[in-house]
Amino acid sequence: MADTKDVQLADDLSKDFKRLETEISQKIIGQPEVVRLLITSLFCNGHSLLVGVPGLAKTLLVQTVSKCLSLDFNRIQFTPDLMPSDILGAETLDKERNLRFIQGPIFANVILADEINRTPPKTQSALLESMQEGAVTIAGKNYTLDKPFFVLATQNPIEQEGTYPLPEAQLDRFMFMIKLDYPSYEDEIEVIKSTTSQQTGEVKEVISKEVILNYQKLIRKVPVADNVFEYAVNLVTKTRPDGEKADPIAKEYLEWGAGPRAGQFLILAAKCNALINGKYSPDIEDIKSVAIPVLRHRIVKNFKAEAERVTEEKIISDLL
Length: 320
Known about the structure:
Elements: H1 4-24, H2 32-43, E1 48-51, H3 58-68, E2 73-77, H4 84-88, E3 89-93, E4 99-103, E5 110-114, H5 121-124, H6 126-133, E6 135-138, E7 141-144, E8 150-155, H7 168-173, E9 176-179, H8 185-195, H9 209-221, H10 226-238, H11 248-253, E10 254-256, H12 260-276, H13 284-295, E11 300-301, H14 303-307, H15 312-319
Parallel strand pairs: 1-8, 1-9, 2-5, 5-8
Antiparallel strand pairs: 3-4, 6-7, 10-11
Helix pairs in contact: 1-2, 10-12, 12-13
């Protein structure tokens, strides 16, 4: 990173990340890894899928992040009867009998797609264009969404009844799949204390929209050594059981491996991870630190893995 302005911006990113972490931790107790990944995906202009049982503060987490970043926030509750127009908006006739477009909740900076797997694939796919292009098309007209645009979808791993699994094409649009676990014993006591008393810690705005957009541009400029590119691509190709570079673990336990988008997200996330930690270029350790959330939803286990209860995390850890 030769430009002194960029170096200064990189230093600011690292400081702002720590300030964001501190501010968010006032409301969200004991989830530092989840917060790190969420902020990383935002700085990389990516989207995230949050998976966890009900009651783990997924919605509160997203609301808190959007407040700290001074971004417009909309929550869409996905239900079996939700229609694409309920997300995108629709054209209606006004008093003068002219067609007028009424914007749907997708027109915000941060979208919480709550329980995304409760709605049929037709409605889920209404998000695809907006996630990929940052725009929506209604009745042949293209509407650009305000930047930054960030979709956070939540999904409960239990209650399979009345749910529609996300298609692979949709899953691949998410930079990270972030799993939320139950808090530790000490953290849970802290959570119960803070949520059953009059304490209402309000979070402050830490970063403006413009700064986020500058960080997104900066991450694209971060230089990457050839050996880091090679490591990322090797890791992705090792997951493909039919490929010539397939790892024995992939051949034994995987039906499908990750596509090229996995490599792109590994590099972008590693760049951001390096900047967060005060480095100006990522190394192999940065790839390793983001590999599980980038790859876990891009590999498909086979029957043997299901029967032996081998998790995606175990497979990726072994590949690393």
